[in-house]
User: Fold this.
Amino acid sequence: MAKPEPADLPLPDAPCRVSLLKTPAQFPGGVDLDARKAQSLQEPIRIARVPGRLYVPLSQHIGEPTQALVSVGDKVLKGQQIARSLSYISAPVHAPTSGTVSDVGSYPVPHTAGLSADCIVIDSDGEDRMADTGLRLAAVLDADPAEIRQRVRDAGIVGLGGAGFPTSVKVNPGPGRNIDLLIINAAECEPYISCDEALICARPQDVIDGIHIIRHAVHARQVVIGIEDNMPNAIRCLQQALSDTDDHDISVITVPGRYPAGGEKQLIYALTGLEVPSQGLPIDIGIVCHNVGTTAAVARALMHGEPLISRIVTVSGAGIKRPGNLEVRIGTPIAELIEQCGGYTENVARLVMGGPMMGFSLPSDQLPIIKTSNCILATTWEETPPPPPAVECIRCGKCAEVCPAVLLPQQLYWHARARDFDKIQDYDLFDCIECGCCAYVCPSHLPLVQYYRFAKTEIWNLEREREQADIARQRHEFRQHRLEREKQELEARRAKAKKALRPKQGDADAKQAEIAAALERVKAKKAAQTQPPANTDNLTPEQQAKIAEADRRRQSQRSEP
Amino acid sequence: MEFPTQSSPYLPPRNDVGRLMLTVILALIPGALCLMWFFGWGILFNLVIATATAVAGEALVLRLRHRPVRRTLMDGSAVLTGLLLGLALPPLAPWWIPVVGALFAIVVAKHLYGGLGYNPFNPAMVGFVVLIVSFPLQMTQWSAPAGMGQESLSFTETFRMTMLETLPADTPVDTVTMATPLDRAKSDLSQDLTWTEIQSNPLFGSFGGRGWQWINVAFLLGGLILLQQRAIAWQIPAGMLGALFLISLFFYIGDSDSFASPAFHLFSGASMLGAFFIATDPISAATTPRGRLYFGAGIGVLIYIIRTWGGYPDGVAFGVLLMNMAAPTIDYYTRPRVFGHAKSDE
Assistant:
């Protein structure tokens, strides 16, 4: 692949707002955690078996769910689009293998609330025949960025770091917005998770190809790969691959391995010293951030024609016999994956998707791997014990010391408990990234993050209700207005019709009648004036005399000057 | 296979209230031993009676409130309240002094406000203030520190004094009690003695008062252990001792005859015990980092004012309680700038 010349990139004239720090800054708060990554890095990436039946959810990303394009009985090929996105913030879904659609309906999916959602169920035919996806783009680094964005979108790529935001949106900075810095997030800060490290070591070329494509698509001025200092193998692999491609414009910068160094805002701060504005996006300060797995997926799609139908998943924890990293087809039931990792150990206690700090526990292993499933943890009670009984908050402030958002978790807890949702927003609840540091250090063992999630959900519900009430009120008001207007229009029409009905022959008569009425009115007025005032009718002689006297005085006064 | 679900994080919590309280209790040991060395067995009786009463009171109220008794007692907060109160009481106080103080601290100051986590005032200090206001005579029954050449009471004599309020027949009360350096300094200064004259009295030791200076050093040592163990936040002791130092230095430089030296203020009375063990009670203190600095500084200033111009020899208890009142307001106005918010937000 030809290395792009940065000089080729049409750099706008605007000054660059972002410069990299010489030594990475320490973001506020955070905790030091035992990495526990070695157990899943003992072997190279294994390719997981394609299961007989796959459950592919229609919504595996942030944004609008997709709409199924196939129905029961349809034959599908591997890589064929089986669900399309209907809105901008969405990502289409592809068949992970070839086979037959056996159902389109609601199945349990991995979800924090343990819900079911619409899935396309595919029975594999075992042939794994690939469709012609048309995603490959010749001379991709000379291609129109708009074309790249469209292909990234068609490939169904979402952020593979865990959040699952559609990548096509993030490679589209929009008109008039410069990208001064493209950050590739390789800081895998949560314990156990090692899928990014495994990917970097196994396929560094995919990662770097992907970076080149994204850099071209967003016209980024600088590119940096941010990685934790406790991943020496990955750092070596990246540097080797970069020197192999003779690319000196991409730097690899290590940041201290402190949780949550891989959080987007934390990594940006560590590398640049800049804070992403509250409620804002990195692009507001000229930065865009992509996970390493995402960049590799972009390269696979645009250079090899493979849509996002598989991902690397860390399967780890002391509850697993043979931990490791596996390349897994989307839709593979977790139970199948566990089986390929030697099954559970006897003392397995919990099943978690994601890491032990921000992941969520799964009620069952009959759930599919989705695009955002970076890790499956099967842990024992020793690793992840049941929470000790909570006692009251003693306001020790340890939570505030470790909060990377510099919040006061003790106050948030207080207001969440009191359901004081105005106050809790006053304390900037929505700046909470739910990293779990506060709960981890809480000596009272309070499930703090749970309280914040509860408060956020309640506030969203209230807002939705308020919005709905507003809409209802507007509709009611509009209806009232419309009824009123219709009534007036009807009356106007009636009046007009009446006028039209009134015969013309009456004109002269009417004039006569009007004249007569006017005469009557004049007569009546005159009569009224000639009549004496009513209250002087029955006066005593003395009163009469007084009146006469007054009249006289008036007369004399008038004649005086 | 089915699994239990729970909200993240899943890693075992790093801290524990019980362990935190235990750390604080253990860090009290050097100071408590030192206090006992200089003031005799009475200190031990106070500690035992106050702690036993505090625990019994806590158990009783928890029972009445239908709360888990054993588990709550294990958090160690009642023990700590009892110990802190016991350490503040004069060694020859009668037995009912620690009983009344501890009961008031636990039942009224703590549980009537909702128990652990809800008390707006430091319970041990509420207990102490109730005692010093209600029983001023008994609260001055400090014995002479060891090494002053005065008679010291044996274990049984002290026990009889504590339980029956009787001294051996040939020992008048005046021969075993003595004013504390803070008390003495206050009365001497009011009689226009110069600080240099006052300090020549053997009661004043070399910098903070005989016995008291070493007791304070021992509590400072315990406090440093707490800081090293990260059991307390550094801001409160730093704020309190810093403010006490600066304000006493200011007046001492201005008039070194009429005002006690900074060293005396820092190493006398309950300065170190207050700074590291009492003012740092997180429940009733300010909770923001900057707020804690102000909270501590406020206590330091109040201690100086009360010691210098107030009606009581020491001011730690009143200083702490007054600042407890101000803590919510301090917290409100010292919220840190949230990550990603504009710098002018404050």
Summary: The longest helix of chain B spans residues 41-64. Chain B touches chain A at residues 1-17, 19-20, 71-72, 75, 115-118, 233, 282-283, 285, 287-289, 292, 331, 335-342 (CB under 8 Å). The two ends of chain B are 52 Å apart (CA to CA). Chain B is about 60% helix and 0% strand.
